[in-house]
Description:
Domain Calcineurin-like phosphoesterase: 21-200
Order of helices and strands: HEHEEEHHHEEEEH
Organism: Polytolypa hystricis (strain UAMH7299)
Helix content: 25-40%
Strand content: 5-15%
CATH architecture of the largest domain: 4-Layer Sandwich
Shape: globular
InterPro entries: Calcineurin-like_PHP, Metallo-depent_PP-like
Pfam families: Metallophos
GO molecular function, one term: hydrolase activity
Amino acid sequence: MLNCFLFSPPSLRENDYEPFRSFLCFMCQKFRQVYLILGNHEFFGVSRQEGLRLADKLQGDPELKDKLIVMNRKRVDLQDITILGCTLHSRIPLEAEEIVRNKINDFRRIVDWTVANHSEEHAADVKWLENEISSIRQIDAGLKRKIVVISHHAPSTKGTSKPSDEGNPWSSAFATDLIGNKEKSCLDDVQWWVFGHTHYSTESVCGQVKLVSNQRGYVLPNKNKDGTEVSGKFPSRIRKIWDNGRRDQSTFHPEKVIEV
């Protein structure tokens, strides 16, 4: 079984750093290792460079060291399983740049962050993934290691967002069609791809790749979706908010585990 977490904390800036550190300390006491995927929200109020510095600071914290692993183009080998982690910024086509810039908060709230920066990071993330996967398949030819990719943005636009959100003019800010295309690439040669960012929990199969997301989204832990208060402790109150006695694929499950 693989326990991995895809976080997008409120921010890594000064006011949020200590609360987030405390939360990570709590999680690191519960699990052998916690894999932290950097998204977009943790850079709100700071530059990307400063956010990366603060993430490195968290990873080196005495209470988190060797337990917390920041997956910023990071590879971790676990017996016959390899985990590859990166943000996987999306590819924003030229015709969508203006509406994405106007609709998406990242370009107002991340210091000195532009659509061009976003696209450059996308290209760097994809190149890193391709190099790592190709290297694994060449060096471990015949062994067929299982590869699990964990990213913040989604690797496909199909089925990774709410149906009502698919195909909207700014959807390229959330996902990129990297797998399941007519021309196959080494990115199709992975077994699992775990993602976030779309605020939509789902499981599906794209070719041989099992796509899975378990996302809580923006709903506050002590409120229903209509804003009314919910009593009880986390995670039982979360189950009360979303499940109401039912478990459907599109809801967040706080105790979800995938077996690789």
